[in-house]
Amino acid sequence: MLDLTLYVKFFLGLIAIINPFGLLPVFVSLTSHQTEVERNQTGKIANFAVVVILLVTIFAGQHILNLFSISLSAFRIAGGSLICIIAMSMLQGKLGEVKRNKEEDREASGMESVAVVPLALPLMAGPGAISSVIVSAAEHNTLENLIGMSITVILFGLLSFSLFRMAPLIFKVLGNTGINVITRLMGLLMLSIGIEVIGAGIKGLFPGVMA
């Protein structure tokens, strides 16, 4: 039987970590030179790319860990730490240097197409999102759960695309202040997720410490 609680938690985790609300100002800025049709096409390609990246991560993540002989517990600690770093940046109302840096910003400003780079990767399907998906898929690695998480990723992509379609209106209504408030709330949720992942990793590596 499919565990709906698992998928709801996974879905909310994707929203918190990828934070499509917080990316709306960046999306509007990167597509400011485009027509409405071109902007919608950019949003569609970006979210399609994110879905593909995360689907590949769901099914290949555990194999990548095995290839490099990395234990799930060690990866939990590393991934959780990265999630916490990004969350601390979000709590300050910023995307953070972990997701993008000044050099990438300069490259993006000169690109004609920004859908895949930098929107899909690394802004949306960044290290934090990929780490979180690998951990979730490795923890719940039955075929039913992998299919359920895949459907959840597709639903997230549809939600994110809908937000991007309404980006100018949402950004106009919420403004920078509203976007920053949502980003900070997402950062707090993300920090909680990161700490929980680190705790599970420490318990797995040192079972006697947290017995």
From TrEMBL:
Keywords for the protein's UniProt record, in alphabetical order: Cell membrane, Membrane, Transmembrane, Transmembrane helix
Q: Where in the cell is it found?
A: Cell inner membrane; Cell membrane
Membrane-protein topology: Multi-pass membrane protein
Question: Does the record carry Magnesium as a key word?
Answer: no
What domain of life?
Answer: Bacteria
| Keyword check for Magnesium | no
A single GO cellular-component term from the record reads:
plasma membrane
Q: Which residues cross the membrane?
A: 6-28, 48-68, 74-93, 114-134, 146-164, 185-206
Write down the Pfam families for this protein, in alphabetical order.
MarC (PF01914)
What the record says about family reads:
Belongs to the UPF0056 (MarC) family.
UniProt name for this protein: UPF0056 inner membrane protein
State the species of origin: Shewanella piezotolerans (strain WP3 / JCM 13877)
